[in-house]
Amino acid sequence: MVGTRLVLVFFLPAFLIFLLIGMPVFFALLFAPGLLLILNGQEREIALLYRNVYNGIDAFPLMALPFFILSGELMNRGGITIRLVEFSQALMGHLRGGLAQVNILSSMLFAGLSGSAVADTSALGSTLIPAMEKNGYSRKFAAAITAASSVIGPIIPPSGIMIIYAYVMGESVAALFLAGIIPGVLVGIGLMLMVRALADRYDLPKAERIVNKNQSLSSIEYWLSYVILRINLAMLLSALLSFFSSILATLINQPILLNTWTIALITLPLVHFFLLNLRKKVSKDFRYVCKRAVVPLQTPIIILGGILLGVFTPTEAASIAVAYAFIISFFVLKTIKLKDLPAILTKAALGSSAVLLLIGGAMAFKVVVSLSHAPEQLATFVLSLSENPLILLFLINMLLFIVGMFLDAGPAIIILGPILAPVFIDMGVHPIHFAIIMSVNLTVGLATPPMGLVLFVASSVSGERVETIAKTILPFLAVEIIVIFLITYIPAISMTLPKLTGFVQ
Q1: Does residue 130 have a cis peptide bond before it, meaning omega lies within 30 degrees of 0?
Q2: What's the N-to-C CA distance of the chain in angstroms?
Q3: Interatomic CA distance for residues 68 and 322, integer angstroms
Q4: How far, in Å, CA of 153 to CA of 336, rounded?
Q5: Could you give the CA distance from residue 400 to residue 413 in angstroms, rounded to a whole number?
Q6: What is the rounded CA–CA span in Å between residue 123 and residue 128?
Q7: Whole-number Å distance between alpha carbons of 351 and 95
Q8: Is the pLDDT of residue 2 over 50?
Q9: Within 13 Å, how many C-alpha atoms sit on residue 228's CB side?
Q10: Of 136, 138, 145, 134, which is closest to residue 102 (Cα–Cα)?
Q11: Is the per-residue pLDDT at 4 higher than 50?
């Protein structure tokens, strides 16, 4: 029988060796624990290993993942990517390093549609990398900023990895989604500041704000965006008024009863007149670019708003997102035809299969590791390193960052979440706060050599070597590491929104 200590010495290195020799992650997740069982004289337990692959993905909450993937694919095929890029360029294209800034802002917006770093790199990279190269940027710089900004995708909701974390650890999806908004925005702002800092050094060019002039909208899209924009702004204004009234009620120790929907109806005319006045101060081309982005950007509002209001579960939200994407793409934008549907469904099915297989493999991996009692020893080892929680958080950040270099965020959360989370929760770290620390760390690892997945996707899209992109991306990785430590040591960054909305006490 192989002892627990040998498990720690042999088991994980064996897994990493399988990855380094080019074995697909799913098979490495099965082969490493299978080899352990054989060495431990537990050949009969191998059946348990493969049975857990199915049991790991046979869960209702995970149904949200295929729906989100399909929704993102419908939006991407429907020309939504181009609209988001044009909208971002209209806002930031005039700045120094404009297209790089556009790349980052587009990633932040696209995150609300796909929740995937790979989808972000593929969709935006195929559009923006050639455009940046044509505008005077080096190909390696364009590929690097695309890869670096794509990690925002799984942080800003809807986030696939946060759904996985909620499923494994029993946390609130709504709380995790809210907790990820500010960290995701902070990563984006940090990258924008780095681009500005590099603008003079590399003589980064400006870009035109409006590339395609004299655009038009169909009658149905025009009126739909007209109505949606006013409703959204009215609801936002009413939410802000409700928030400030709750603060005032706390200060004066008197309840202030306000109905959000009533306030929204009252503020709707004010919003309308505000937009009419704003209309006179901007060009027609700018208005139309903004209007073309309204309908697509309604997707994350529907998803997050519905979940937060308790109208539907994350899985139901994902299915509604698919229905919305289908209706918009086929009947409003008319950018997808029935003949395109088989290819869209096939690609979404392949993407979903890959994600779910990884989850199933990770669940089987976790079960076998648990049988070895390695998690308990690892937790004991972590606690023995220091009694200071700040130092332990620093060390765990290093561990998660390294793990992210080799393993996709979803499987890493399944394997390490149940081991590490209880340790830090016992030390006083809030479970939602630790979830964000873990998620952001592992997500940034997607853009980190040697195994960062988005580096290979960026290489495939741009035609640039992975090694070259990995060197160029280092300043942007430095920014993301700084943000990770800010999130770690300033809990308010991730905890403010969940607390303000009442999802965390």
Answers
A1: no
A2: 47
A3: 7
A4: 24
A5: 10
A6: 9
A7: 36
A8: no
A9: 18
A10: 145
A11: no
* Tokens linked to 492: 């308010």
Cα distances from 401 to residues 122, 220, 275, 398, in angstroms, run 23, 47, 45, 5
**What pLDDT digit, counting tens, does each position of 197-210 carry?**
888 777 777 777 77
Tokens of 94: 């005039």
Distance CA 110, CA 98 (A): 18
The answer to whether the beta carbons of residues 120 and 320 sit under 8 Å apart is: no
In the numeric block, the tokens 């995708």 are attached to 153
CA–CA separation, 440 and 355 (whole Å) = 18
Percentage helix, strand, coil for the chain under 3-state DSSP, each rounded to 5: 80, 0, 20
Block residue for tokens 């980052």: 104
Dump the DSSP string for 212-273.
S-S----HHHHHHHHHHHHHHHHHHHHHHHHHHHHHHHHHHT------HHHHHHHHHHHHHH
**What is the Cα gyration radius of the chain?**
24
> Phi-psi region for residue 254, left (φ > 0), alpha (ψ -120 to 50) or beta?
beta
- Whether the Cβ atoms of residue 315 and residue 127 lie closer than 8 Å to each other: no
| Residues 458, 463, 466, 470, CA torsion sign | negative
Peptide bond into 422 cis (omega under 30): no
Going by pLDDT thresholds of 50, 70 and 90, the confidence category of residue 377 is low
Q: What is the mean pLDDT of residues 315-324?
A: 87
- Which residue has 């706390």 as its token pair? 250
> What interhelical angle do 219-252 and 260-279 show, nearest 10?
130
Question: Which one-letter DSSP state was computed for residue 332?
Answer: I
Confidence (pLDDT) at 185: 93
- HEC sequence for 157-226: CCCHHHHHHHHHHCCCHHHHHHHHHHHHHHHHHHHHHHHHHHHCCCCCCCCCCCCCCCCCCCHHHHHHHH
Neighbours of 430 (CB within 10 A): 19
| Confidence at 436, pLDDT banded by 50, 70, 90 | very high
Which residue, 186, 187, 194, is CA-closest to 151?
A: 187
Q: How far apart are CA 379 and CA 325, in angstroms?
A: 44
Question: pLDDT by residue (tens digit) across 112-124?
Answer: 776 778 778 887 8
CB burial string 295-309: b at 16+ within 10 A, e below:
bbbbbbebbbebbbe
Is-contact 25 365, C-beta < 8 A?
no
Domain extents for the chain?
A: 78-210+373-505, 211-296+327-334
Amino acid in position 3? G
